[in-house]
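Running co-folding for flavin-adenine dinucleotide.
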Amino acid sequence: MKLPPVDYEAPKTVSEALELLTEHQDEASMLAGGQSLIPLLALRLARPAVLIDINGLSELAGVSADDGWVRIGAMTREYVAEESALIADAVPLLAAALPLIGHEAIRSRGTVGGSLAHADPAAELPAVARALDAEFVVRSASGERVIPAADWFEGYLTTSRRVDELLVEVRVPAAGPGTGISFQEVARRHGDFAIVGLAVSLTISGGVIGDARLAFAGLSDVPVRAGDAEDLLAGERPSAELFEEAARRATEDLDPPADLHGSPEYRKKVATALVRRGLRAAVDNAGERQ
Ligand SMILES: Cc1cc2nc3c(=O)[nH]c(=O)nc-3n(C[C@H](O)[C@H](O)[C@H](O)COP(=O)(O)OP(=O)(O)OC[C@H]3O[C@@H](n4cnc5c(N)ncnc54)[C@H](O)[C@@H]3O)c2cc1C
């Protein structure tokens, strides 16, 4: 299907991109990897007047670490993040989730920033960002601000980014000693969006769970933290009974959507199984990081 007519701009610097955004505001869409935007344009589900191609902004690509945080530039390709030794070591939950996104061809173009700005509630990276309390750095012509993940995802494909702001970086806290992680998902085929996904990160010290974080994908219009289950797990010794109760608490108040991939009841049942499975896996690999 052909794209609708649209003006095209290709800024060479972030400042040029911000000038264009200031000028065009909500008439503009940023073209990053194009893996979500181009299909939306082809299907006429998005009708921007101007495409601002940000692929020339090499200053927005790259992964670095400082002060306990890992910084990922918005234009870092998903496959580059997947291959990053720094991410594998310091953000193992992200490393576990990245290979589950689509297929290699999609990840070779798709960007970390594009996935998080697109904010598909069934996508893997938003659930990881929510579980780890990532921070989003956005820049406009008038300055920069940092938005916590809890405030970033506002609704279906909607974030708290203003129309004149560019997402420039996402910051994720580096995993500490005793961290165990797991990304679980059920999809119809490998590479499909998750029907239900679950990001788990926890710490174990002296055989006891410390910080526990669980965030679901595919159960609401935004990624959902399972706060009641997290509170239950903190300070307890891992056991099958504990995980069973955590799964019950994590899912009891959920009201998942119905679509052709699954009923709300099916999604809740899958979510319950994923909590048990994810907690077991995370506890098992927590011992590897001391
Ligand atoms: C067949 C197929 C299967 C897929 N399967 C999955 C999957 O299983 N899981 C998954 O998570 N994703 C999946 N994807 C989507 C893929 O991960 C995309 O790469 C991602 O959602 C969007 O990233 P992008 O860089 O391509 O962004 P684009 O498509 O270029 O942009 C997406 C949106 O974000 C905005 N945007 C992009 N970058 C910025 C920025 N820096 N600042 C502000 N706004 C910005 C754009 O304007 C646009 O509105 C799939 C895609 C395809 C085609």
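Result summary
The chain is about 35% helix and 25% strand.
The chain has a mean pLDDT of 95.
Job closed.
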